[in-house]
């Protein structure tokens, strides 16, 4: 079957492992572009948030290339994310496309659909082989995210501008092609050596900022105007608080992800004085992560929000109190198809200048 997945960050590292190696034909959407966004905006309901629109654009471009099946994550709860796949499916069917929407989610009583989707993805392969491929894909994600965190440390300290991003991009290509765990270990070792070589160890005192907010916007560079790179080139070390590992672990609720449970509990406890329960999405997590950023001694926090995202709007309101109580500056950036990059850059640079002045003042006073 010709299958396609939406783009998000560097998730393409698992495309071959989960699709091609299972005997399917991979239809890879083009890199997300203005055309992708324009397609999504044109056919999405106006009230829908930016991630739904971009992913819909990904799916349209994949269907144009001949995709027969679309794989999309599902969910439930106050966040509208759980409805994305259904809305996208209905829009695409109304446009006349013929395809199967494969929604990957933990079943809530509908085990028949779950088994049907699992068997379709298994494609006649043994369950043992399928599980081994998913385990390899998981390790690829973990390695990808370890290197993503490392490049955020290296980028503001690199000897030559762009060297860290280039080395990371090359490592992503290697991870995608890897067929076993030993190869992944070798890739990690080689990439870390390259990072060490391109790092200026004299650059030690840098502004450190937590990146919090909605999951997709924080992980997808196209949607956030390549925020992490911009910050790195402004001399800022980014501490990204969202990750695929932390997102999938608590959802699946398996022992192999037990480390994620402790992290989730710590975040909830940090958020509790300000917001005592989940409001859907990453709302409570955003608040907790800003509190933890203060405890970690970070200089500030940047919250990224897709326009109309209610959980993050709730968090934004609460963060004003958190910032006041803890004396940690926060900046909220809201994105939709109308957001202009120049105005975004101006706000970002002004915020970083503020943090640098605060750091300089603190050093002088001490």
Description:
This protein folds into three domains: 124 residues, Rossmann fold (3-Layer(aba) Sandwich); 76 residues; 161 residues, Rossmann fold (3-Layer(aba) Sandwich), CATH 3.40.50. Strand 1, helix 1 and strand 2 form a beta-alpha-beta unit. The longest helix has 28 residues. The protein is built from 15 helices and eight strands. Strands 2-1-3-4 form a four-stranded parallel beta sheet, covered by helices on one side. It has a four-stranded parallel beta sheet with strand order 6-5-7-8, with helices on both faces. It is an alpha/beta fold and 366 residues long.
Short description:
It contains 15 helices and eight strands. The chain is of the alpha/beta class and 366 residues long. α2 (34-43) crosses α3, α6 runs antiparallel to α7 and α11 packs across α12 (258-271).
Q: What Rg do the Cα atoms give? A: 21 Å
Q: Kindly name the structural category.
A: alpha/beta
Strand order of the biggest β-sheet:
2-1-3-4
For the terminal residues, how far apart are their CA atoms?
65 Å
Low-confidence stretches: none
**What is the number of helices?**
15
What is the tally of beta strands?
8
Q: Which range does the strand content fall in?
A: 5-15%
């Amino acid at each position: 079957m010709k299958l396609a997945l939406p783009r998000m960050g560097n998730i393409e590292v698992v495309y071959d492992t989960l699709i091609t190696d299972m005997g399917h034909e991979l239809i890879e959407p083009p890199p997300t572009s203005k055309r992708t966004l324009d397609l999504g905006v044109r056919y999405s309901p106006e009230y829908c948030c930016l991630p739904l629109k971009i992913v819909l654009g990904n799916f349209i471009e994949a269907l144009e290339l001949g995709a027969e099946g679309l794989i999309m994550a599902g969910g439930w709860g106050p966040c509208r994310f759980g409805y994305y796949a259904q809305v996208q499916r209905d829009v695409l069917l109304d446009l006349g496309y013929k395809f199967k929407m494969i929604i990957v989610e933990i079943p809530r009583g509908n085990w028949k659909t779950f088994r049907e989707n699992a068997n379709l993805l298994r494609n006649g392969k043994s369950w043992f082989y399928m599980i081994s491929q998913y385990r390899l894909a998981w390790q690829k994600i973990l390695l990808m995210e370890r290197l993503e965190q490392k490049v955020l440390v290296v980028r503001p300290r690199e000897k030559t501008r762009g060297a860290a991003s280039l080395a990371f991009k090359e490592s992503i290509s290697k991870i995608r092609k890897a067929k076993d765990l030993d190869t992944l270990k070798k890739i990690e070792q080689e990439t870390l050596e390259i990072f060490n070589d391109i790092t200026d160890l004299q650059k030690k005192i840098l502004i450190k900022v937590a990146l919090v907010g909605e999951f997709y916007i924080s992980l997808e560079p196209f949607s956030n105007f390549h925020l992490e790179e911009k910050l790195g080139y402004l001399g800022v070390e980014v501490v990204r608080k969202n990750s695929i590992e932390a997102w999938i672990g608590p959802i699946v609720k398996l022992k192999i992800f037990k480390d994620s449970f402790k992290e989730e509990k710590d975040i909830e406890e940090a958020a509790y004085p300000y917001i005592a329960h989940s409001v859907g999405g990453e709302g409570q997590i955003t608040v907790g992560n800003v509190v933890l950023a203060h405890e970690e001694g970070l200089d500030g926090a940047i919250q990224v929000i897709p326009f109309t995202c209610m959980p993050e709007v709730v968090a934004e309101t609460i963060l004003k109190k958190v910032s006041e109580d803890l004396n940690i500056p926060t900046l909220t950036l809201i994105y939709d198809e109308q957001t202009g990059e120049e105005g975004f850059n101006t706000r970002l640079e002004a915020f970083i200048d503020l943090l640098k002045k605060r750091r300089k003042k603190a050093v002088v006073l001490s």
